Amino acid sequence: MNDLSGYGARQGQSEANQQGLRYDSALVCRESCVLQFIYSQLIRLLLPFILLRLWWQGRQAPELRRNWQQRLGFIPRISGTVVWVHAVSVGETIAAAPMVRRLLARSPGITILMTAMTDTGLTQAMKMFGDQVQYAYAPYDTPGSIRRFLNRANPKILVIMETEIWPNMIRQSRSRRVPVFLINARLSERSARGYERVKGLVAPIMRSISWVAAQADKDAERFRRIGVAASKVAVTGSVKFDVDIPETVREASQKLKVSFASRPVWVAGSTHEGEDAQILAAHRQLLNDHPDALLILVPRHPERFEPVAGKVTKLKFSLARRSLDEDPSGAEVYLGDTMGELMMLYGAGDVAFVGGSLIERGGHNPLEPAGWGISVISGPHVFNFETIYQRLLDDRGVTMVEGADELYRRLLVLFNDADEREASGQRALSVVSKNRGALDRVVDGIIERI
Q1: C-beta of residue 91 within 8 angstroms of C-beta of residue 362
Q2: Contact status, residue 270 vs residue 355, Cβ threshold 8 Å
Q3: How far is CA 401 from CA 1, 238, 239, 290, 415, in A?
């Protein structure tokens, strides 16, 4: 009797627990739906202002105005087995390039649709692939824009590079049974904490992702924290270690390097507002020791080309501009004011400084110069590439500096000591070589899941 009573009590408790779980799940679902609705309505309200900003940006990039309808999902219809590869801008597009080439080689029947949020990202893709792939601007994340885009593209899978988490893009894709892969995925601790503050919105989106190919253990743990199931997360490493320098780029770089003769050349790549003054100050000091030194200065964004050129001339440096095909032989600063040539310009230098790191921007990809086997310098703010930088630091493949004076002192050491310059470049290249292999793991994972 007591046993039966105990069983009945336990059964009653179990049913109560199940009802409680269903109630909690309903609350979570309701909260998620409400947050999703609020998010979508906010995007709709902001859309007119976003389009006005797009029109304003189109003054310098007319392509943005000509194809503005694509932002609302009005793209040409695409047939075949479509693999949609989304990369936000130039860096992610370059990172995606080896993966796209490998997918085309292993599955020649597929159609790759590459999208980007920026004009520079799409221009970079077109420059790399020509008519091998299809292109479009990524739709804004309103329900209607995403729906129209999916109706016209009809993708088999969606491959998102790094950490482009757009709620409507991901959830609508999954609602159509389109697997969503987050490739070369990285998530800084700062970003993870931000997502945790809106976990009611983020967690359901994370559950919609089919596979996360994380760069490192820390990234994988953070994705699990914000709602991705552990079974859907794999640590594949960074595909950026699989640096791909096409022969045409090597030839162009060598041709430019020959034109510099034996001058000491350093490249400051992907610089941002707040860094140029420090870089130019370091170069001014370097010229006192090496009067024939040349700085190749490459701003990250094209809208900064003119302001940076003005800053260089105001500080009374002799300037040559690549966009004007000016001869750099008599210049102290060579402005890389063209798009899609940073990799080539790195190869023409002896030392590289990677921008976005002297300010709290999070840094840019140091593996592009490391892949050339040249000395790499960076500022301290590199949280967007923490795993990559840690591996370089562990093997002394990069030197961190703070400000113009430290940058100058490191440049002076490298240009005064050819052996150290060569050795530090080879250490950087060694880090690239021993961490290759992520590309194969990522492509295998994608093909397995198609």
Answers
A1: no
A2: yes
A3: 78, 24, 26, 20, 16
- Region of 154 (left: φ > 0; alpha: ψ -120 to 50; beta: rest) is left
Beta strands 233-235 and 399-400 are unpaired
Quote the tokens at residue 196: 């945790």
User: For residue 285, what pLDDT is reported?
Assistant: 98
Mean of pLDDT values over 79-85? 94
Q: pTM for the whole thing? A: 0.81
Q: Is 320 helix (H, G, I), strand (E, B) or coil?
A: strand
The tokens describing 421, both together, are: 């310059």
CB 349 within 8 A of CB 338: no
Classify residue 48 by burial, with Cβ atoms within 10 Å: 0-12, 13-18, 19+. Answer: exposed
How many CA atoms within 13 Å lie on the side-chain side of 277? 3
Cα–Cα nearest to 285, from 147, 410, 423: 410
Task: Give the per-residue pLDDT at 279.
Answer: 98
Measured distance CA(5)–CA(115) in Å, rounded: 64
User: How many other C-beta atoms lie within 10 A of the C-beta of residue 317?
Assistant: 18
> Is 251 among the catalytic positions?
no
Q: Which domains does the chain have, with CATH numbers?
A: 58-238+438-449 (3.40.50.11720), 247-434 (3.40.50.2000)
DSSP letter for 67, please. T
Q: In whole angstroms, give the CA distance from residue 311 to residue 326.
A: 18
State whether residue 205 is helix, strand or coil.
helix
User: What residues contact 278, with CB distance under 8 A and at least 6 apart?
Assistant: 358, 403, 404, 407
Distances (CA, A) of 241 to 145, 251, 260, 347, 444: 35, 22, 29, 17, 17
**In this structure, which amino acid lies at residue 326?**
E
- Helix%, strand%, coil% for the chain, nearest 5: 60, 15, 25
d(CA 245, CA 266): 19
Q: Which of 15, 31, 63, 92 is catalytic?
A: 92
Give the confidence band of 31 by pLDDT, cuts at 50, 70, 90.
low
- pLDDT for the residue 59: 77
> Order of strands across the sheet with 265-271?
319-321, 333-335, 294-299, 265-271, 351-354, 375-378, 399-400
